[in-house]
Design goal:
single chain, alpha+beta, OB fold (Dihydrolipoamide Acetyltransferase, E2P), 2 domains, five-stranded mixed beta sheet, 4 helices, globular
């Protein structure tokens, strides 16, 4: 669906990988040996997904013919426009792991580091990597009550509070400053907040999920201060940014 030369990736709408991953639209890192110019948008491909330690990459591509691209002119279009730096996020409400309503305004007065995930993402360098980076930051800033790390699932059908609690409660017990929120029953809220964060997701109703990745820092008044695209950002860099923001705020 898309060729990303700078990051050496193909954005691919792939079939289900039985026993491993549902059908999704997602970026795949390419093996260094692959000539990225061999294939074009619309190609139907067969390839091997190789998992090594905490990284995954696609290799051994074979051209099968031409595929059918989604009918939507632009899968990245959202109902809500992304904010520029300094823009103020609207107040959105989700469910915490105990099924209680929790609003973004509940944590006004603190900085917040917000990321978007879903529980069934099996790629170690995508949603799981975002969680690991948030855990690093939560541990780093465990002694200050001035920032929270919020991970919101955009899978508003499957990721119920009880489902998320069974997976993530161990994180919240160790790191009280890390929060996991469900968007079940809060469809408008997740589209609004994700759209303002310039995060796209689609295919939840069809059980064929695709999404982009972005994390944002918002200040105590919900102003956008910094954004981190994809998964290539380093938590150490985010740590430095957070320290600078905390210092400047005082």
């Amino acid at each position: 669906m898309e060729i990303r030369h700078k990051s050496n990736e193909f954005l691919i709408h792939h079939d289900e990988i039985p026993g491993f991953m549902m059908a999704m639209t997602m970026p795949f890192k390419l093996a260094d040996s692959l000539d990225i110019n061999r294939f074009g948008v619309g190609d139907s491909l067969k390839f091997r997904l190789e998992m090594k330690e905490e990284k995954a990459f696609a290799a051994s591509f074979q051209l099968l013919g031409k595929g059918t691209l989604p009918e939507s002119d632009n899968i990245w279009d959202d109902e809500y426009s992304p904010l520029e730096i300094g823009g103020i996020f609207a107040n959105a409400t989700f469910l915490d792991l105990d099924s209680h309503n929790v609003s973004l305004s509940d944590s006004d007065g603190k900085f917040r580091f917000i990321s978007y995930i879903f529980t069934r993402c099996p790629m170690p360098n995508m949603c799981p990597a975002v969680i690991v980076k948030n855990r690093y930051l939560a541990e780093t800033f465990a002694e200050t009550g001035e920032i929270e790390f919020i991970l919101i699932s955009f899978d508003y059908i499957y990721d119920t509070p009880s489902m998320m609690k069974s997976i993530y409660s161990s994180h919240t017990k160790v790191y009280p400053n890390i929060k996991f929120y469900s968007s079940v029953g809060h469809l408008n809220d997740i589209f609004m907040l994700a759209g303002q964060s310039f995060v796209s997701f689609w295919g939840v109703d069809e059980n064929d999920i695709g999404h982009s990745l972005r994390s944002v820092i918002i200040d105590p008044e919900r102003r956008l201060m910094k954004a981190y695209d994809g998964t290539e950002w380093r938590p150490e860099a985010a740590e430095r940014d957070i320290r600078s923001l905390l210092k400047a705020y005082h």
